[in-house]
Amino acid sequence: MDNRKHQKTESRERIFQAAITLFARHGFAETGMRELVAEAGVNLSMVNYFFGSKKGLLKEILDSFFSGYLVIARQNLVGDDDLHAKLERFIRSAVGYFDAEKKSLIIVISELPHDDPEIVEYKAGWARQMVEIINQEICVPLAVETGQHIPSTCFTPMLTSLMASRFLFTPVMEKVSESGLKSVTVEVYAKMIVRILLQGIAGSDDEVTADL
Amino acid sequence: MDNRKHQKTESRERIFQAAITLFARHGFAETGMRELVAEAGVNLSMVNYFFGSKKGLLKEILDSFFSGYLVIARQNLVGDDDLHAKLERFIRSAVGYFDAEKKSLIIVISELPHDDPEIVEYKAGWARQMVEIINQEICVPLAVETGQHIPSTCFTPMLTSLMASRFLFTPVMEKVSESGLKSVTVEVYAKMIVRILLQGIAGSDDEVTADL
DNA sequence: AAATTAATCAAACGTTCGTTTGGCCTGAGA
DNA sequence: TCTCAGGCCAAACGAACGTTTGATTAATTT
């Protein structure tokens, strides 16, 4: 029995997953179509058939990652809760998401600064929504409560970069010290970021869970 | 009068600068040799003549950036000063360096997670030295003084990513809000990082300059 | 049963890639 | 003055690039 109709989604998904793996490992431009379809186990022409072009494949990876990131931001930040509780919730969820989607994260960050006109609008559209949320749910409340003014266009990159640092540097840090990285689990890593953000590097763990 | 002998350094430098500009703008793999030599105003074969290969050019950019970063780390971190003072000094200098070399920074970060075997050893070699310094001058003293244990293989990426965030996200954030980014000067940006790292996002500026 | 649709394939498209070659020109040293 | 080395150049190299084409297959629809 031939499951061709069912295989539509299957082949498409195999290409998608192979692209995430290879784009993260070698970079988008360094990954050739032939290497990609070999990894996915499909014919060369299937990429253009399902995604229109190689760039269309990249766009879909970007969209997939950003939309998930945005959902997490909305779920954990929007509301009238305590600012610290919201921030802690968000960071734990976001770091978990980055860990689960670390390959997509690497692709997104690596392509971030490049100015391909076809891609940059995609990124800006997603970033605009993210900055909006961070502004309303973190920066504005922070200014009201403590008088500290941190523009959201400045804080959003800082927060995202901070949470992403572990996954970006992993390939290099593994060569520096194998044991060093693995001694910090993802949960501990998220906790560390929360503590630093709320109290600085010298802050005690106890004060984090307590409200301000 | 023909200054051919003097132009050796000149042509080499023009290629080097053009590469930094274009690799940062389009990415390493997306930048073609012909586009590169057009920007530099030299002949196509000059890149291989001076740098051996396109990758040799990338290696030199990496080396140039990392060596400068390492010098700043040694100058500002090594010594028996107060931990907070050292950290503040380092962050101000490093952010200034990132700003001056923002194009190289973008190249370094973008190429960081990719596993080209010819390049990854270069990065690991530099990173090893950086992690060593951060460990001895920040992580160990911090653990002694406050009992907070942050592995240097975890803190070095965090600190570097945090300081780099502004320059990585600039192309996207400019599209999000032109005014938002420029309202924060590089000096203010460095100050913000220092405050957050020492006291968290709610900390007051006054306490930063005061010793702990 | 015939027509239609969607997935798949091998093969080739024209282009661009990084690199190499071999010769030319000029200033410096013998 | 002759030699020589180094900066420079136009031209071409084979390989790899992303994409397109046209045919084939099998499941679905009419």
Task: Please summarize what this structure is.
Chain A is built from 11 helices and no strands.
Notable characteristics:
homodimer, 212 residues, mainly alpha, Arc Repressor Mutant, subunit A, 2 domains, 79% helix, DNA-binding
SSE layout:
Two copies of one chain form a homodimer.
Chain A: H1 4-26, H2 33-40, H3 46-51, H4 54-77, H5 83-100, H6 102-111, H7 117-146, H8 152-176, H9 178-182, H10 186-199, H11 206-209
Helix pairs in contact in A: 1-2, 1-6, 4-5, 4-7, 5-6, 5-10, 7-8
The first copy, chain A, binds a DNA duplex (30 and 30 nucleotides) through residues 2-5, 7-8, 11, 32-34, 42-50, 53-54.
Beta-strand segment tally of chain A: 0
How would you describe the oligomerization state of the chains in this entry? homodimer
Largest interface, counted by CB within 8 Å of the partner chain's CB: A-B, 68 and 68 residues
Counted by DSSP, the helix tally of chain A is 11
In round numbers, the mean pLDDT of chain A is 92
Can you tell me the number of structural domains of chain A? 2
Radius of gyration of chain A using CA atoms only? 20 Å
Please describe the biggest sheet of chain A, giving its number of strands, its sense, and whether it closes into a barrel: none
Order of helices and strands of chain A: HHHHHHHHHHH
Helix content of chain A: over 70%
Shape of chain A: globular
